[in-house]
Amino acid sequence: MKRPAAVLALSLVTLGGVMANARLVAPTISDAAITGSGFPAKLSDYGFFIQPDAQVPNLGVHPYALNTPLWSDGAEKLRFIYLPEGTQLVADGEGLLKFPVGAAIIKTFAFGEGEARRLIETRVLLHRADGWVALPYRWNAEQTEATLALAGGRLDLVTPAGETISYAIPNKNQCKGCHAKDGQVIPIGPKARNLSVKWMAQMLDSRVLDRLPPGGATMPVWAGYSDKGPVEPFARAYLDVNCAHCHQPGGGASNSGLDLRWEQADPHAIGILKRPVAAGRGAGGHDFSVLPGQPDKSILLFRMDSAEPGIAMPELGKASVDKQGVAVVRRWIAEME
Amino acid sequence: MNRLALAAVLLATAAPLAAETQRVEPGDGAAQRLQEALILAAPGDVVELGAGRFVLTDGLSLDVDGVTLRGAGMDGENASVLDFTGQQGAGEGLLVTSDNVTLRDFAVENPKGDGIKSKGADNIIYSGIRVTWTGGPKATNGAYGIYPVESTGVLVTNSKVSGASDAGIYVGQSRDITVRGNLVEYNVAGIEIENSRNALVTENIATRNTGGLLVFDLPGLPVMNGGNVILRQNVVADNDTPNFAPPGNIVASVRRGTGVLVMANDGVLIEENAFENNPTAHIMVVAYTQPFTDERYNPYARNVIVGFNAFGRGGDDPQLDGKEQLLAAFGGALPPVLWDGIVEKDNGLKIAKGVTGWSLNLSKPGQSLAEAQPGPLMLTPLESWEFPEVGAPAALEARLK
Lengths: 337, 401
Prior knowledge:
The complex is a heterodimer. By secondary structure, chain A is α+β, with helices and mostly antiparallel strands. Helix content of chain A is 18%, strand content 19%. Chain B is mainly β. The longest helix of chain B has 11 residues, at 30-40. At the A-B interface, helix 3 of A face helix 2 of B. Chain A: Residues 1-20 form the signal peptide.
């Protein structure tokens, strides 16, 4: 994409305080980096950010958020969509938005607040002519650049809950481990049902999205959960977002027979009175994935509530326990008849 | 010549790219170098492991078709060992998700979950692979050692697994399978064929497991209707390790001292095996025992044939209620074949001439054992039988030559 630097400079004026540190000439987004066959070595090769450490997006790069997000050791996540000039997202009912070839989805993981915030990694999904490619980039200590981490990596950090963990940056194959369906890499997050009406309306206004899909925004906003309110929509949304990318037909854990998608209505498929298949010690001595009324005898909760490799679920992207997620799913099982 | 230069030369002749060999030695940064090699490999390439110990904190994965991952050996001083004792993440040591992969001549030790899992990986070979939990049989060991699932074309040969808290070699929801010439010991189940069709299990040694060879068909899974399984010319001996599976798993119900266990399935042939010292039963054939709601599922053991086998001592210390009375009634040892007696129609258990056994004389799947009326097996022996030839495609065998 070629946009005149002057246009970009104008837009920078609106960024206020950021302006002081911004480069005079913003980078040009490289469509070739996105659609070419290689693996760009640096995140800056794409030009997605005007100011990388502050995660200020370039023109054509749109921030978004999810109603119920995937939990990753409490990381703050900054999500962006990039669309090449002249293209649009196409709504497809409540499901995944359809991305044109040349689009990219960018997600940065950060820990710490305010001045102490550190960007850890940025994962990109690139929509190439022969399909999506997922690549992980690891930020340097100076926060000036992130470099390709094909083989992933580990670093120690402290989560918002105060736990010191060994945080794992996934390798390229592990990206696919979650993003694969029927052997092909696909996006997971931006499904219309898990996006806000407000955001979709904004995208419609700016002609980034073709229309407001029916069935959009039906998943609850996770931050709006209350002990006094309904629990099932939150539990099912949580399981869909955190588990169903593997636990669905065609997903990485399809052989388990457990299908935790939001739309799955069969009680056995979502684990109710379902016996384990290949759980090994992950079963924790329990007979069923979900035993109604008995959260402490349910394999699903046992594995969510563990951080031990070989037991813990999800297997990737988790080194500590999501206490709030466990509490919501616990209540859902406890109140189940 | 590097790959690009070679490609330029070969383009003129339209010949395929020659395979490259990428060698990875143990030592500093080995985990990253090995994982990068597995990611950057091109179809047809060989990733070669040097001899020695690769210390790994995370699971490895391979997602490129046609790659060979080859070590210097699975045993001895020159073995290539992937050591997962300090593993911090992932559900298995190595995950393969691509087709036509060959894994050979290396070892995997102490993975936190499964050893090597291949999922949706057609035409895969495991040859000369050792998976060991070095602390011996423990419930805290991973479930499966060698774990191909949802695949067509599987060959597991000349490999060794010990310590698996479920099955040493587990083939699930797959077709066209050969498991040949392996040693499985000190696992809960030595070899398990589950919800799979067209499997040949032959020339293996299954010893010191809780149960030696298991053929299961379970409800509620994407792939069911297992059958056409041959267990032939295996040594199934001394399977006397107390069950150490974590409770809740189906194999936790396997009785210590089981040689062969067939549960449900359509078509299983058991012949020319040598059975010795399996204290509960050399062969057990039963219907699925748990309640289920899956309408696609058939819980009966159908068309199971016990042909000519060599039965040595066994059935003399069964892990069964009423053991003393049973032993007394059968003269000190139970006969080799234990059947639950449950038939769907006239397609139940079949035996060759001279095969003896006993039946629980139950009548329907899930019936309580308390209602058993044990008695000698009263079946008319088959004069002859036909059974389809099964196993992995010949092309897999050819790839090893």
